[in-house]
């Protein structure tokens, strides 16, 4: 019952675009109420300007000068403003749809005047919560526009590099800025992956330390789901970056392609790590199964030892509890002590048997 | 016995085309008795005409004018009429066979004057039942013909867009109409996939909440089968849409190819989701197995605790139930109370043992 | 012991060709004693002749005329006659070896004057037994030669189509005849696959209906083996038909290639179905395992309930069976009834405990 | 402890070449003490000469004449002689290293004057032991040199064919001789594979006949290992033969390529069989698991039936073994018989209960 | 808690480069405190010079002469000196970053004047500990520079070969030196793989010898992890060496490419072995599961045999322990002996039953 609700919410979410004409710009995501904030970094080798505004038209000033501009748009729910900036920079309607559709998988599209990238950002936010965010990057001649769902700090180191006039970023063109943005996104992938590895190792420890409780199945399954989710985000990135490298666009200078090749390497590395952790998690499940089986064995051993020792002894004492009138042993004076002796020997014999069976 | 029957029905179904000359147009499906209904939307930018008829010849009027026509044919069992329209529009006999063979998998075939597509529609009908339907689309210059098994409402939003003279569909050529039809079909895939995801999550909840009954294996297996079925329908779509994009036909304008590229993205997205759910279902089975094993462990623990406590105690009381004439303890006044004391200590010792074993 | 024998037979079988020079035409198969029967259908649009004979030379008359001839040779053990017809029609020695080697997998070889195909036929014979048969097809200009192990009826519908002067087969060249033969073979694949699907479903039903007996593992394993066997036959067909389509031979007219493309579709469809059933069978094994585990749980529950109730009670009655002289309760008049009361309360308490554990 | 030794031997073996300059010809294998025996078959259509010698220089006479020579060198440990023949025939140093390194996987290398092949022979030797042997083949114009570890009889049928002046081998060039050698090697693969299939079937029988002992896990695992080992040998052969077919060398005549194509088919066939047996062995493991589980179920049933019947009965008789002074039933004359009746009814009730549970 | 720490250390490690500008040369590894030692082997056919120094500038002397120089740099934490040598030899900044980033996976990059390779060395150090080390190789015209984390002895045999004026290495150019270095690295892979194989076999032995303790799951899981780790290092090597072979650089002479082809073969061999061991380890887990299940069966059998024999007997003796006044058997003189007879027969009957069930 409790579960049903989020499911319904999802259906509502989807319903927003369902049946609409393709190319309709409808925000599909969960951060509805955030207003659109615009942050513009405009710089040359020598000058640096930073503007923060709520008015989308402030962003139009920077087009066409010989500066490099990074226009960072936070908040995707106000689709009207997204549409306006799209029109101003000549973006294709389908592309605008992708910007505001947070279900869109990573992809790249090349146009004459710009390259369009959709990615997933993954990071731990200030509260150390795992966060997946939709980000779109438009890389044009002299400008880079980024569209984010909410204002986050993963670009902070980049901001400080831009403010430093001696940084390579200030001395390079917009393609290097684009590369730096991607590099910042991918750096966070490594953090996420490493965190995942820690979780796998923690679970492994728990399993070995026999501190297993019934929740471990849930932990393994939820880890599995998380890994599948990350994998789905990373999977298309290989192709995305690969296509930038092979692209013949003049938006990316030949000398800067090495940087993108480096990104490609990073992605493959992330990918391989994910696959390794995936196999390890499957292995955990197997380990858990053997742990359960071993425990059951332990329980059964105790039961069997106790039963095997005492059931025959109980039989013996039962024999002499019978009320037959003629049981000669009953009359004999030392019967009781002899019986204890016999029972003790039987007990010893069984102990030796168990030791030989390696149950003790 | 009950089961045998549907199997026989299937064989009869197959028998219809079995041994016949290839190219023979025989309806293979389960909706035999439906008459063929034709619905024609004929429009230009400025005009819009809708015709509903039972007479196939009414559809021939619209060929050759400079309008765009969407001829929607519902009901495939009257193969004669299908053959007639096929002959009128110059469709290949094998193609007609594919239209009426509901077992045909998705495929694309390019001809000089038209492109032929076979697809599976998947949707929840008005009664919220999961429905798979065979649909064929012939995309020609100025016309699109669709062949459906039964009249359903997944194209309703499309119909209303056509009736709106300002919609892009009214202002575009027949290839955009074709795209819109495919888009409507694929939108429903997402709904189906999402529904699947809900089911997987519900099953997961049930497993965690220990509300497991023996039917859960059936649920998992039937979910697995459903996923395999959907996957089989989606698998060839990738190639189908990929071939439209790479096609050099002039039936699809270069400027509209972007829309088809978008469809391609959608299909890959659907595909990835299916694979994720598939892995999750396999994981569910594993989880269920560990749940069973854990339960067994619980049962065994109870049995072992009870047995381990009471079997030795029963032995002890058995000893003093023996009828030997010389058992000194029997005569001693406090024997009974001392024995209770000993048994209580043994009981405590075993409790401590179980607590150490973490069984309590 | 019983098993050893077929194995030895196999070795003998292999020994026949073992160590012989390659290209030696030795029949490798199990239908040794069948004589070679020849059946010749010679037809044009207007004429139709059918000849049945034991004399291989009767087949040589039909070469070179402008008719189309289908020469069907049944029985492969008389290799001399196979060799003679091979020499007459200019077939390569290695090709003759393939015709009589029933272990040969499906393949295609193109020669200047003919195309050579090896296939496996799969069908249910008149006695409804699953049969796999080796068939070779030589497709030349104006003639098609088929080599079968034994005379079977899967080509009967084809024979009646040939006898009908208005059929497409009578109005087409030998490549259409070749296609029709392949189509007949593939139609039977669908029947076999469907039968397989029925078996899978029957097994599933048995598992659900708890009618499980220990043979079900055997059934599953033998089903698995059967599927692997069919898969091995179907696997190379994709390439075989694919190569016909891509071939530049003039033996197959361009206009008839569509028919072969259709065959290609059929093969992919068969292939996908096999993979689905394969996954389902693997799923059955899992289901069976959980069924066993569930049963074990049921058995354990009964044991645990009975033991947990009666072992403590037996201890209690044991206590008052002791022969101590000073047990005050023994003397008290209502002890017996009070004890029954206590035991009944204990019984109730355990019932409540089991109900809480959901074991009852 | 016993196990450690072969491992150490292996390390010594490896140590031989470890750290040496690449191209150093060091024998790596286990048949150290065998002297090098040379066997030369020199033939034309009309003449045939066979020479057996220990002196490597006897082999040099046959180079350059217009005969075809097969120089078969047995024993690889005398690397000096290998080096000498290598120098005489102009073989690359790395190639010599491969000849004497029995760990080398199958490969092909083309040189201007010869083609070099490394293979694994697999066969059952005269004592019916499974043997894997390293063989290198140098195929040059007019000569074929084979390097074997030990003299074995798998080429015996070939020897007799060579001695027969009417055989195709006598009438063909050295490439046909090379093909015949490969064909002899591959024929033995089929024998090995078939033997493997027999083993799988035997194991399956054992499992079904319930003759399972604890060794079956070992049998399955060792079968698995054997299959992995064969697979590793066969895997590269596909590429090796494929490259001969695609090769543009004039050492292999175009008309003889068909023979190599036939070999390629054989290899694919072997490969497919291995994969099928592999899947079947994995299936065996599953079957074994269910067999164990079924047995456990059987054991549990017996335990549960006995316990469930006798534990309550034992409780009842315990009640009347109590020594209370006031148990009215004890005094009643027919109590004993009535109690037997009650216990018998209880016994019957439980039997009916078990029959309903299908445990009996 | 104990576990958390290494995880934190890792995070610190990563943090070093996190957020920095790409191309920043920061050492990422664990061997911080090692100073940079430089070892230069400068040789021609006739001369040989070896220099060991701490001063990076000593390495600059050797550039440009017609000798071949091997500059081996040990210790990567002093990034300044790495940067200086990088600048001197014209290495790309990103390349320097890869040299000091020990997390970098194997890769190859071709530049006009040099080829850059990153690899993982795997070996057992002098203390026989498994060690993975990061190594970068810069192969230029007349020089090879290697960057290692710590000074190790795997290149010792190579050093002695260089000192021998008649070795091929002294008579070849720098590409052969590069090959020899790679060959030394790969030789150690074989040792590691072989060691892994020994471990797998040891575990298998332990499983068969029933010396299983609960640690075996851990051993299997850690072996699995080790294999995944090695696999991740080996995986990219295939491509790395493959690209050297396909490269059109003039840094590697055509006649020496055969050596690299040989390396390629080695890598594939390593790869196949890893995959075989991987499958074997998965098989071990299965075997372990069946071992546990078999043990459980053994335990259950003992329990069931003991219970089945003694529970009915205990019931019987219980019957005659009842205190009814009228039990005729109690009075009869031979009752006791007859009862023993009956119980002995029951005992025998059960033994026969167990023998038939094959439990004894």
From TrEMBL, chains A, B, C, D, E:
<dbReference type="InterPro" id="IPR045863">
    <property type="entry name" value="CorA_TM1_TM2"/>
</dbReference>
<comment type="function">
    <text>Mediates influx of magnesium ions.</text>
</comment>
<dbReference type="GO" id="GO:0005886">
    <property type="term" value="C:plasma membrane"/>
</dbReference>
<dbReference type="GO" id="GO:0015087">
    <property type="term" value="F:cobalt ion transmembrane transporter activity"/>
</dbReference>
<keyword id="KW-0472">Membrane</keyword>
<dbReference type="GO" id="GO:0050897">
    <property type="term" value="F:cobalt ion binding"/>
</dbReference>
<keyword id="KW-0460">Magnesium</keyword>
<dbReference type="InterPro" id="IPR004488">
    <property type="entry name" value="Mg/Co-transport_prot_CorA"/>
</dbReference>
<comment type="similarity">
    <text>Belongs to the CorA metal ion transporter (MIT) (TC 1.A.35) family.</text>
</comment>
<dbReference type="GO" id="GO:0015095">
    <property type="term" value="F:magnesium ion transmembrane transporter activity"/>
</dbReference>
<keyword id="KW-0813">Transport</keyword>
<dbReference type="InterPro" id="IPR002523">
    <property type="entry name" value="MgTranspt_CorA/ZnTranspt_ZntB"/>
</dbReference>
<dbReference type="GO" id="GO:0000287">
    <property type="term" value="F:magnesium ion binding"/>
</dbReference>
<protein>
    <recommendedName>
        <fullName>Magnesium transport protein CorA</fullName>
    </recommendedName>
</protein>
<dbReference type="InterPro" id="IPR045861">
    <property type="entry name" value="CorA_cytoplasmic_dom"/>
</dbReference>
<dbReference type="Pfam" id="PF01544">
    <property type="entry name" value="CorA"/>
</dbReference>
<feature type="transmembrane region" description="Helical">
    <location>
        <begin position="302"/>
        <end position="322"/>
    </location>
</feature>
<feature type="transmembrane region" description="Helical">
    <location>
        <begin position="334"/>
        <end position="354"/>
    </location>
</feature>
<keyword id="KW-1133">Transmembrane helix</keyword>
<keyword id="KW-1003">Cell membrane</keyword>
<keyword id="KW-0406">Ion transport</keyword>
<keyword id="KW-0812">Transmembrane</keyword>
């Amino acid at each position: 019952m409790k579960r049903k609700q989020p499911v319904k919410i999802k259906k509502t979410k989807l319903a927003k675009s369902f049946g609409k004409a393709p190319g309709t710009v409808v925000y599909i995501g969960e951060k509805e109420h955030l207003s659109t904030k615009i942050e513009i970094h405009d710089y040359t080798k020598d000058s640096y300007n930073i503007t923060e505004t709520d008015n989308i038209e402030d962003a139009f000033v920077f087009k066409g000068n010989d500066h490099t501009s990074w226009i960072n748009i936070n908040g995707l729910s106000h689709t009207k403003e997204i549409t306006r900036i799209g029109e101003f920079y000549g973006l294709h309607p389908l592309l605008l749809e992708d910007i505001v559709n947070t279900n869109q998988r990573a992809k790249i599209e090349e146009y004459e005047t710009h390259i369009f990238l959709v990615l997933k950002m993954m990071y731990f936010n200030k509260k150390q919560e795992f966060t997946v965010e939709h980000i779109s990057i438009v890389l044009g001649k002299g400008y880079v526009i980024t569209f984010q769902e909410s204002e986050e700090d993963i670009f902070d180191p980049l901001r400080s590099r831009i403010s430093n006039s001696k940084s390579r970023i200030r001395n390079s063109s917009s393609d290097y800025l684009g590369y730096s943005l991607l590099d910042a996104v991918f750096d966070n992938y490594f953090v996420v992956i490493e965190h995942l590895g820690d979780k796998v190792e923690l679970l492994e420890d728990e399993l070995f330390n026999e501190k297993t409780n019934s929740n471990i199945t849930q932990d393994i399954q939820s880890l599995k789901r998380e890994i599948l989710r990350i994998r789905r985000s990373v999977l298309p990135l290989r192709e995305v970056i690969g296509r930038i490298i092979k692209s013949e666009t003049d938006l990316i200078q030949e000398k800067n392609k090495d940087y993108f090749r480096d990104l490609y390497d990073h992605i493959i590395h992330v990918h391989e790590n994910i696959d390794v952790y995936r196999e390890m998690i499957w292995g955990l499940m197997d380990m858990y199964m053997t742990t359960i089986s071993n425990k059951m064995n332990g329980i059964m051993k105790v039961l069997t030892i106790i039963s095997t020792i005492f059931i025959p002894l109980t039989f013996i004492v039962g024999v002499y509890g019978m009320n037959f009138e003629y049981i000669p042993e009953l009359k004999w004076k030392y019967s009781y002590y002899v019986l204890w002796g016999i029972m003790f020997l039987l007990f010893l014999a069984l102990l030796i048997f168990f030791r030989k069976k390696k149950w003790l």
